[in-house]
Amino acid sequence: MQKLRAYIKGTGSYVPPKILKNDFFEKVGSSDEWIFKNLGIRERRIAEGEVTSDLAYKAGLKALENTDVTPKDIDLIIVATSTPDRQAPSTACFVQEKMEAPQAVAFDISAVCSGGLYGIAIGCQFIETGMYKNVLVIGADTFSTITDWERKDSVFFGDGAGAILLSATTEDKGFFDFKLHADGTGKYHFNIPAGGSEIPASEETLKQRLHYFQMNGKEVFETATRVLPETINEILEANQLTSDNVDWVIPHQPSIRILQETARKTNIPFEKVMTNMDKYANTSGGTIPIVLDETFKSGRVQSGNLLLFAAVGSGWTWGTALYKA
């Protein structure tokens, strides 16, 4: 029996129409010049009248366009999000209903900015074992709902969703390796303190603004620029490849400086690193699926190209993947 692989059959993305430019953040002591120079961000999208499942659902439908797969053919929907519609049920169940895919299994995962990559890895396992044929992986976040607009770190995030339709193939293409990692000792460097079982919601937690994300920017930068090069080198060495073999890098969008430093440390020319944070900022779980959709639709990816996926997120969580187009 031939080995099954998961390949990308379709991609889609959706961002809300409202644009918030950098000049908005002058009131918290930042500026367009500083934000663009250090983060690479010009503007971001903000959801109004839409929740996370709305963004996810619209991206999911776009991923099915130009394929022979309908919502009724989807076996599994995985939604990677840190901003679910509700604590229960899962956002994936809302998406399943909206897409009219009643036979699809549906669940969420939480890995914050690594969520898109973790979701792909999970989806691939179901396909490689032969359990499912079509898996829809969606990364979607509305970070505007957990942003304290009075803090300087409010400049980092935007809202958006991307979707990847994974299907089974026996051809010489698809995802062929993942290296995933986590380190819970970094849990307090990016977190939302209240709202869970540790610190349930109360009048006092609202007064203390504990339902918004809190970030240690220095720790994020130092961790990201250490673990991303390490895991990129790890997966390349494990597959007897070098940075010269990589055609395109599909990364999470943490900041332009983090990606530049990662490229420098791994000897990957920065022109191979796909970015869109100038338009959307950091959309957390949505970053990799959105930039992948844009890269595919730009016509850059050719048959046989080697794609390197990389992400780092709260937890800490991080990882890489290799894909042959």
TrEMBL record:
Belongs to the thiolase-like superfamily. FabH family. Its EC number is 2.3.1.180. The gene is fabH. This is Beta-ketoacyl-[acyl-carrier-protein] synthase III. It is an enzyme of class 2 (transferase). Pathway: Lipid metabolism; fatty acid biosynthesis. Residues 107-184 form the Beta-ketoacyl-[acyl-carrier-protein] synthase III N-terminal domain. It catalyses: malonyl-[ACP] + acetyl-CoA + H(+) = 3-oxobutanoyl-[ACP] + CO2 + CoA. The active site is at 113, 252, 282. It comes from Epilithonimonas arachidiradicis. Catalyzes the condensation reaction of fatty acid synthesis by the addition to an acyl acceptor of two carbons from malonyl-ACP. Catalyzes the first condensation reaction which initiates fatty acid synthesis and may therefore play a role in governing the total rate of fatty acid production. Possesses both acetoacetyl-ACP synthase and acetyl transacylase activities. Its substrate specificity determines the biosynthesis of branched-chain and/or straight-chain of fatty acids. Homodimer. Residues 236-324 form the Beta-ketoacyl-[acyl-carrier-protein] synthase III C-terminal domain.
